């Protein structure tokens, strides 16, 4: 984020340095200036959304000459600098070219350069480049769509699907260079790499190590068992406690990890109580998907959003946690109604043998590691919370916390590093590159313009579209690629809609993309994992069965979260 | 007294299989050996990081489910034990049948909905067990 802010200020800084520097060279030292007739020309290239256009070629022609007298390439921030060997006597013409954009010509009279140029450096007004649809546009769009489809239909592993998407766009670019067709160019490897958000990669990696150590202690299973004992056979009460435990765990860990820990033990408790385990498992996974959005580290989508929009752990807590809690309360009410017959049928009786086995399966396996983990995790929470004040970004906190745990707990390092799911990290990197490709070709700009025209300046309409539209999309396609692709769109809308600077639209995207996962069995990874565990125990969760419970739950809970966001940003302000 | 190997998942859908296995064991005067094969293929359907000792959790769950099955058998007056294995269902079942020198293998008919085990696969497995191991196998 600091880097992004720095890059944002860079154009101004460059202009100041350029003008000041040249002022020093050509203004302060007149004798030196008379020896050198070079005229610096600088400016900035933007697209129609006001975003910088990098890697464009700029050629300068003076006095109608056919050969350019200077050439330059625009930088990441869209700025360029040309050194004209002599000032024009009549006109200066700039020719700007960049694949995916229509060529641009800018001409200025020599008098105008002289007039506004006491320091003998000419600042060209911002030039707006218009996008054009090329073959590369379609290749990138199709690559992205293919990736989404392969993931949604479970044809390929997500990581392989994302890598295929990257290969398609890079392959087209290589071919374009080989046959000399600019139309085929999508994105260069160098540009694609620049789209990888390493804040996300390191935050995810650090948290994987931390979670890998904590999960080994058995604390969540123990909490579930204690809840079972305390509830004394009252299933309606137990399910509330289990949902709350799952919710808290999901806010701190990722949802899949939470369900892998909670589902097996909950299933055993349900059997011990003589009720259908699905009446515990489905509410738990719904709670997991909801509560995950309450913190920065609760879901991968929040990590993406937080990094892109510079939303801190504390920002999520103050702006979204109450919404998640409200949604969770709505879910509890819904679950108690839907499963009331199952909960009433609970027998509560279990044999000594089974009870002992349950207790054994839910014991804390390593109390010393648990204590150490809790201390480190607690310190990490403080740093997450105060990160902005302490100048510690979340990825640094996660990495330092992970290292501290590795040193203090002394787990099997090889085992711990194996616990880092490298395929997931590769998936993220490949995904960033594919999303970068669709940004390069302008697909994101088209979507952003479409939404901008649809929404106009109506912030509330924008929020509702992002929440509910996001929910529908996330119920049918993987929410991580969806969120990654939507970030620049939401970024554009946040810059152009009055009042959206509060980042409310990003919170809307978080709610829609995460809670939308409750709408269908394939809407969230945690759903699929829970269904897998339940099926192995002889309690299959079919698509229709999940839909019957999950879709109404999605509507109820997103409704509650929507109310919160409207209250928080439109009433409180 | 011989041993009958009964593959079961342990859920409600498996009660029918367990009850039938108990009946057969009583008729033959054999003891029952329940087997739960834990496979974690479902993890391949997600790109989310898997940081948990899933195999250990699934093994614990399998132990619990089979203890419940054992209780059902004992309550019906049949001697019963259990074994939890990890890996490919077909291979693990055949290995356990050989290892425990069972005289019969009982498989449960797949449920109406949601079961990943298909009847055709079970029928093929029955043939395999009978041909390769020479052990009687039935689907109940």
Using CB atoms under 8 Å apart, which protein chain pair has the greatest interface?
Answer: A-B, 55 and 39 residues
Summing up helix and strand content along with how strands pair, one would put the structural category of chain B as: alpha/beta
The residue-averaged pLDDT of chain A reads 87
Relevant CATH superfamily of chain B: HUPs
Quaternary class: heterodimer
How many domains make up the 3D coordinates of chain B? 1
- Low-confidence blocks of residues of chain B: none
Cα gyration radius of chain A (Å): 28 Å
The structural class of chain A is alpha/beta
CATH fold assignment of chain B: Rossmann fold
Can you give the mean pLDDT of chain B? 86
What is the ordering of alpha helices and beta strands of chain B?
EHEHEHEHE
Proportion in helices of chain A = 55-70%
Keywords:
heterodimer; A: 573 residues; alpha/beta; Immunoglobulin-like; four-stranded mixed sheet; four-stranded antiparallel sheet; 8% strand; B: 140 residues; Rossmann fold; five-stranded parallel sheet; 4 helices; 5 strands
Model description:
The complex is a heterodimer of chains A (573) and B (140). With 573 residues, chain A is an alpha/beta fold. Helix content of chain A is 67%, strand content 8%. In chain A, strands 1, 4, 7 and 8 form a 4-stranded mixed β-sheet that branches. Chain A has a 4-stranded antiparallel β-sheet with strand order 3-2-5-6. The relative contact order of chain A is 0.11. Residues 1-35 of chain A have low confidence and may be disordered. Chain B has one domain: 3-Layer(aba) Sandwich (Rossmann fold). Helix content of chain B is 46%, strand content 20%. A 5-stranded parallel β-sheet of chain B has the order 3-2-1-4-5, sandwiched between helices. The longest helix of chain B has 22 residues, at 54-75. The interface between A and B is large, with 55 and 39 residues.
Please outline the helices and strands:
The complex is a heterodimer of chains A (573) and B (140).
Chain A: H1 2-28, H2 30-35, E1 39-47, E2 57-62, E3 70-73, E4 79-84, E5 91-97, E6 104-109, H3 110-115, E7 122-123, E8 127-129, H4 135-152, H5 158-179, H6 189-194, H7 198-215, H8 219-231, H9 235-252, H10 255-273, H11 278-291, H12 300-309, H13 313-319, H14 321-338, H15 340-344, H16 352-361, H17 367-386, H18 394-409, H19 413-419, H20 422-441, H21 443-455, H22 459-476, H23 479-496, H24 504-515, H25 525-536, H26 543-572
Chain B: E1 3-7, H1 12-28, E2 31-38, H2 54-75, E3 80-86, H3 89-99, E4 104-107, H4 119-133, E5 136-139
Parallel strand pairs in B: 1-2, 1-4, 2-3, 4-5
